[in-house]
Amino acid sequence: MEKTSTMAPHRLTSALLASLLATILTAGTTDAALLDVPSPKNYVRRALARATVLNNHVYIEGGQITQYEDGFSSIRGRVENQVNSTLSIPLNESWKSESVTIKATPKPFESLARNRWYLWTDTKNGVFYAWGGYWPFGLEMVTDEVYKFTADSRGGGEWGVETLPNGVRLDQISPGEAGAVTSTGTMGIVIGGQATPWTQLGRDNTRQLSGMITFDFESKALMNGTQKFSPFGDTPVVGASAEFISGVGENGIVVVMGGHVGRTDKEVPLGEMDFFDMRNVTFFDPVTKETWSQVTTGDIPPSPRIGFCTAAFSSKEGGHEIFIFGGSNERDYLVYEDAYILSLPGFVWTKLPTPPGGRRAYHTCVAVGNRQVLSVGGRGREDEIQIRDPIPQGLLLFDMTAIEWKLEYDSNAAAYVSANAIKDWYEKRTSSDVQWSSEGVEQLFATSAKALFTSGDSPDSQSGSNTDSPSGPTTTTMPDMSAPAGLSTGAMVGIILAAVICLAAIIGSWLFWRRRRAGRHDALTETDDLGELGVYGAVDRKELASKSHVREMPSDAQVEELPTKFQDTKVPVAHYHEVDGGHDYAELPTYHRPRPRASQNTLPPVELDAGYTERELM
User: Where do transmembrane segments lie in this chain (predicted)?
Assistant: First the structure.
């Protein structure tokens, strides 16, 4: 009997009892006092939401929130409810994080109050689809559907249930959470993830998922990645992130990075699983399903990493950059306080200035206003959902061109161009300097490489393919790998020979001088019965004969950590939006909870059984 089958009902029963107790304790309180959009003064934290961009607005979906009443007084939370409104922020006007008005559109039913939705955005038709995610506590669950939100031009819209074509059975495809989700313009994609008793009505176990789910925006067909395809084969993937980049190849590519390697043979806590190193990225053509991988260089982000957010940008010069921010390391029980840019086709990482506001995970990022990233919400460890966010309303922005963190959005920002540091890197190199993992990858990026690198070398003119991946750690500097120009081969050989002759002459002179000095020293010591004398007496001549002494030079520099501009502010404990302030926050699924002791299991994988069809991927 699997432990997941026995643990899940116990966890659910405990949550039900706690919920009932909280209901009794909070009898008579006013739900209206608790808002999906509290005032900036009362805002504490928002986490586990998703965001997308439609019709000049950012839409924020799902998640949980903590807040204060009258600034710093904690109040009781209403039971069972998460954020049950669709929130929006305008993008056609400039605003500041501390004062922007966030619009709330109530949802028609409670089953839409979930964490970590999978959102698929159909920009052409002005709609996004929501599927998967998990219900806090596993309460108010219903049979799963694909939901559709049709946006208007004012930051509002209307929810509905999407009608799927005949033959598509949702009960044969498991919804999940913690998958890598993105949209290509014609379809939505989810890779991997995990299914738990909180993601699907009637499920009594936890299963890490392999495979890929696709949702076609035209046909509305939800399927298992067209014939069981996944860029990782049968390997379960948990907590990875995906971004679609158009303009590469015929159909664009989906880039996948980070996450853990799930297990199906035995129960292993998430922090003890293997992981996908950020040094390597996997990408594939969403139409042909051709898959590649590439080794990166530069300031490679530490691994393992889940719960980080990403956003993608493309410049008119042909470059493509992926922004990543924060995340959680469940192996070492820490949350990252860092951000990076991965630039293609160079496949080089650049570390960004330390983000303000402290460590952050389980937030969401979107590309906005030509060249800006908007990060929404996030927290440190699980208990930090109660600590006030130094970032007003949890809205932090980053300018990809200026490499600058901001607390205000610029609706008139110029078009995106790569940062100067990234452009300089390309100007000092040729495409042959890239350590291409395969000839296929080099060919895929031939057009952008020709446009960006100084010489414009392409696979047709000069092949720099190298199938050997670097095994050692990569330094955070990016040295110029170009060979010096202007000298012929004969000249270089002559210089080398002259250098060798000079070196030999120097060594010969030094040996001659050393031999004569040794002879004088022996003559002196033969007439001295006391040996070599010093303040400490006679010294053994054999020890003096040593040719060298190792001496340790003092360090001339100290590494210092610069103080951060923002510091986490410790404030009185606030309430959860859906539970009493004194209740154990059990609504997070096992993979969000703190790392357990050896006797516990927070992400127990299970073996696939005969009771599930080959279409059960999510």
Answer: 491-513
